[in-house]
Amino acid sequence: MSKVAYLYPGQGVQTAGMGKDFYENSVLSKEVYDKASEALGLDMKELCFEKNDRLDLTEYTQAALVTTYLAMTRELEARGVHADITAGLSLGEYAAIAAAGAMTDMQAVQLVRKRGILMQNTVPAGEGAMCAVLALDEKIIEQVLEGIEDVTIANYNCPGQIVITGKTAQVAIAKEKLEAAGARRCIMLNVSGPFHSPLLKEAGDQLFAEMEKMAFGELAIPYITNVTAQKVTDAQQIKPLLAKQVSSPVQWMQSMKAMLEEGVDTFVEIGPGRTLAGFMKKIAPEVKVHQVAKWEDLEKIELR
Question: If I label 296, which of 44, 117, 142, 165 is the partner at 20 to 30 A Cα–Cα?
Fold first, then answer.
C-alpha cells in the first residue's frame, strides 16, 4: 500500500483567488475560512479571494496561506486521501502539524497570524530581503557569505537552489558577489522580511511565549521538522522547534530525503502553485507529486 505525505509550501506562493473554488464547493472548506475570519477578526474571503495590497504583507500572508492549506486539506481528507506523514516549508509547517493532529486548525491560523506580526515588527517591511541563488554549489555560497555581515542561508530547497536572507542592502551585495562567483541567476523573492535569519531570533522567542499559552494535542501521525529534517513523534518537541524555526535555515532538501527513507511513495502538495513539486524534480526526479491547488485537482488523485 502507498505511503502518503502531505506537503505544504512556504510564503511567496500566495495569489488572489486562492481557495475560492473550495469555499464555494465544500462545506468543510467554507467552515475553515469562516472560523478563521471569526478567530482573527479578519475577512479571510476578502484577503484570499480578492486582489488587495495586504496579501503580500507578512502579517497577513501567513494566516491567509495556512487557512487556505487547511481548507483544502479537510476536503481532501473527506474524500479518503489521508497522510501517513506531513511536512511544510517554513509557515507551511504549521499546516503540517495541524494535519498531523497536534494543533487545531484555529490554533495553527492564530499562531501564524501572531508569527507574521512578530516577524514584521522585529524587522520592518523593506529592511530585510531574501534571494534565491540558482546553480551554485552550496559550499561556494557559504564561503561567499562568510565575508558579508547579516546575510545567511535561509533555505536548502533542492540541488541548485539555495535561498539567502538578511538585511536588504547586504543581500544586494551578496547577490552581486554570488553572481560573480558563478551563480546562473540570483532572484529576489516576493517576501517582506528576512525569514529564517538570526535577525529574527527575538521573534522566535516571543512566539514561544505565545505558544506556551496553548495546549497542543498528541501527534496522530509524524511530521518532518524544518530545523533538523528529522521525524517528530513527540508533541513536546513542537514548541521549541517552531520557535527555533523562525531564525534557522529550512532543511527542505534534507527533509524530503528523510521522507523517501521512510518509504513515502505518494506526495501531495496542497496549496497554490507547484513550488514543492519543482523542488522534488531536482531531489528525486522519479517521484510523482500530486497537486491540490484547484477544486478540479481533487478528481485527479487516486483515493486510498
Answer: 44
